[in-house]
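Fold this: Basal cell adhesion molecule-like isoform X4
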Amino acid sequence: MAGRAFMQLSAVLAFLASFLVLLVDIEAAVTVSVGPAQTVLKENTVVLQCTYSVTPAAQVDIITWSFTSSTESREVVTMLANTQSVFGTYENRASITEQASLRIENVGENDEGTYRCTVKVLSQGSADTKSVDLTVLVAASAPTIVSTVNSAARAGDDLTLTCRSDGGKPLPTLTWFNGTQPMDAGVGEPTTNEAARQVIRDLSLSPVTRFDDQANFVCKADQGYPDQLDVQTAEQVLDVQYPPVASISSNPNSSVKETNTLTLTCVVQSNPDPSQIRWLKVSGDSADVLQTGLTTTYVIPKINRSQNGTYRCEASNGVIPRDRESDGQATVNIDVYYAPKISSSFVQPFEVNFGSSLPAVTCEAEGNPTPNLQWVQVGSGRTFNNPLSFATMTYAEDGTFTCVAAALDFPKDTVNVTVNVIGRPDIIGDSPAAREFMEGKTAQIVCEIQAKPRPSRVEWFLLDSSDNRAIITTGGPYRILQENLPKGMKSILQINSMKPEHSGRYVCKATNTYGEDEQYFDVTLQAEDVVTTARGSDTTLVIIIVVVVLLLLLLLVGIGLMLAHKRGLLPCKGEPETGKGGRYVSYRDENVTNEFSIEMADKDKSPTAPLPSRVESSQYIPTPLVAASYEARLSGASFGEPRSPVGQDKPDGKKVNSPAFPEPTTEEPPVQTSQGGYRDEDGLNNAELDLSSRKPASRRPIVDPKDTMDMDYPTLRQQTTSPYV
């Protein structure tokens, strides 16, 4: 009753509001907006969004939510003056929140439909309504897989797996996977029952094979709302029984050397495992059992060639095979390698006439693999195919031939055959053979003869213009030399001091019991221009060699001097030289005109201090010598204009200071002696000066008065052009 009264009051207020609007003729509007359609899982909570705006601003009087479905319509909730009224099944579940939104808790399947949000402003007489849809989801039960075979399947059988899902809203989509790979082959179309909310999809395996054993087949059920409903799965691991499938592995391999150990392994795949494994040696249609049991390996220690052949393993597990692939048998052919051995025997030696043919000599050998046979001539190393044969025998084929049988890395087997070639002599070389010799030189004509037996006679002839032969014997300019060879002999005709009359055609003739052979030699003198050219070439070559050797020697001397100079082994310009016997030390410079010598009064004839540097005589202060005194003497002096020392170097490599800026010294000032000279701290007199015209502070080297008899020292200093003292 209260609700009906509330509705009547609302209608009256709305009528009054409309009437007032017509009276004042005011433009007023309210605008409502709703959110997108919502999906919610059954028994969860959902909020249907609704907002509004009022122009001009005014107080909202009534907010109403109503529901419509394909079967019914009903009021949900109404809010008037901030007071909410909830209707029907929504009581205690529905409420208006967030301005005008509808909140529904514990959503049921009957809550699915269209909801309308209405907002009214009575003072303006305006209202607006918007709709939003709500879908209620129901989670399906976990799928199940049912097989047409209750226990393990056997290879060759037909098998169907059925996946079923119940209770889902909406109905899920069923997909089959083999492991992680989706399947198409054998997958049927889904069968659905909307009323029962059930979906079914089959997977057919026709037939089941051994490769399906332990395969994991997965059925996935997806309702299409991953954010709200999880994808559910069911799995089925197949147990497929199948007869043994066998293969054989060999170690080291199926080809094994004799005396090695061979291990054969029977590799078996089956379900269930084999109950028996047999090893057999097959020979034609029969087979000998070698081993029976569950051992998968068969070992042959030190295998020999008689164990060559076919081996077979047989495995069984009680499952009847349906094809030959699964008969549980496997074979392997074992090839035993062994070293080659020549089986041929020969009646030796073979005697063949020179110029005839050699019948085929066949070498045969046993071995595995089949040996490679080859003939090798001893000495020459020439090789020939087997059988050994020659169409025309020469003395080059005389000797020993070896048949070599080789296979893999086995030791080679050999047998020797001797071939004797007998017959007339055979002179090596083309006929006629041209020979040139220099006039005045000794000429040798070599005639090399192969023969067995050796020639009993070798003769030399000289032909005249009519081809008449004149026999040549040792004597005069001719000399005949002979040398035995392994297959014959060598005859040498030597002509001493070759002359023009010795030119011509010579004949070498060899004879034995089987016949004879001869060869012509055309002997001539070398032309003069050829000889001259040869000599000129030799002379030019000698000159070139001599020039190259001289250049190399000069280069070596230059390098030696440079090294000696760098190491101080040679004196350079401006460096001191020691006089004969070490008595004098002279100081020279090619740029000055003076030369001074210092006579050493010391007993050891060697100075103990460095020689003076390049400085003006007025600046030079002698370096003291231990236990020695200098007696300087001017000798061979020539005079010119004085030279300035500025820009010059001292012999020690230091720069010479300008006279205006004397070089500083670290020496102690000298002490004047009673004789007018100076002495250093060691008490030795180092210099004697005439102090009548010079200040004591200027130290100069002492000179012998007899050398300065007609001039005083300052004059001498002014006239000299040398910066050295």
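The chain has a mean pLDDT of 80. The radius of gyration is 66 Å.
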